[in-house]
Amino acid sequence: MSGKGHIRIMCTRPCLWMTAWGLFLFPVSAFALEQATHLLTGHTNDVLAVAFSPDGRLVASAGTDQTIRLWEADSGRDLRVLRGHLGAVHALAFLPNGKLLASGGGDTSVRIWDVTGGKELRALTTAFGAVRAVTFSADGSQLATGGNDSTFRLWDVASGRELKSVRGQFGVVFALRFSPDGKLLATGSSDTQVHLWDLAPGRQRQALTGHTGAVHGLAFQANSQWLASSSADGSIRLWDLERNEEHLTLTGHKGEVYAITFSPDGRSLISAGADGTMRVWDVASGNERHSLGGHKGPVWSLAISPDGALIASG
């Protein structure tokens, strides 16, 4: 078992693993820990966010050591370190064309980085409180951010101008996702609800209720019909947005569920949580297919490669 700040690369295919303080990349088809072939060092403390570039060639990671690292997905090579945040980095998102990376941190800032050169291009500041979620719209024109100030904001990516600010009674915003069709923004927050916002008129469409704890993770299926949410109550809920109702509740994690993502084909849902496990679920039936351990502590974040072959977790 590797220690703090290490990355382990595991085969049958090139795959990376860092323990609870790092990054874990493994073949989706295997779902098993196999003999390590490489051990890399990287972050010096908890990794809170991971993201694949749209072409699947890069993995970005960030955490409480205030740095962002870019890795070559196939080899696990550490390409560069991005420094600028003055607090923990909670969230990462690549622009759909892969040229820019957005990060949100405990220093109340959102920073935009040039992926190729690693240069910070812009810093967007919020009123107060940590920024815990960032996400780009499918067309790359807008960036949504949210965090401790009970507000979510929409920004124009090209200019950095704030387009809209919505402050509500929903508490800390832990998760944000644009629907793939660009019509909705979903927010998950400490008020235990999932809020759906119509982007064209700019108003709330619905609040989805059912969770009994803060909503930490959100994921849209590619067809925009299904939305998954994960919560501090230990459950994952699958929502049918055409019928505006809960379709399935998935249970199995022993503790809070921090992160979820759909496989590219939409047939599987992957979750991660405080119990140190990642679980793979069949979307059609709600049955658990696999459970993967190995982390020494909570799994805060995960991402799946665009081809569905690898999962990264931190």
Provide a brief overview of the structure.
The chain is an all-beta fold and 314 residues long. It has no helices and 30 strands.
Task: Tell me what you see in this structure.
- The protein has 314 residues and is mostly beta strands.
- The chain folds into two domains: 123 residues, 7 Propeller (Methylamine Dehydrogenase, Chain H); 145 residues, YVTN repeat-like/Quinoprotein amine dehydrogenase (Methylamine Dehydrogenase, Chain H).
- The protein is 0% helix and 53% strand.
- The strands form eight sheets. The protein has a four-stranded antiparallel β-sheet with strand order 5-6-7-8, with no helix packed on it. Strands 9-10-11-12 form a four-stranded antiparallel β-sheet, with no helix packed on it.
- It is globular and about 45 Å long.
What's the layout of helices and strands?
Elements: E1 6-10, E2 16-17, E3 24-27, E4 36-41, E5 47-52, E6 58-63, E7 67-72, E8 78-83, E9 89-94, E10 100-105, E11 109-114, E12 120-125, E13 131-136, E14 142-147, E15 151-156, E16 162-167, E17 173-178, E18 184-189, E19 194-198, E20 203-208, E21 215-220, E22 226-231, E23 235-240, E24 245-251, E25 257-262, E26 268-273, E27 278-282, E28 288-292, E29 302-304, E30 310-313
Antiparallel strand pairs: 1-2, 1-4, 3-30, 5-6, 6-7, 7-8, 9-10, 10-11, 11-12, 13-14, 14-15, 15-16, 17-18, 18-19, 19-20, 21-22, 22-23, 23-24, 25-26, 26-27, 27-28, 29-30
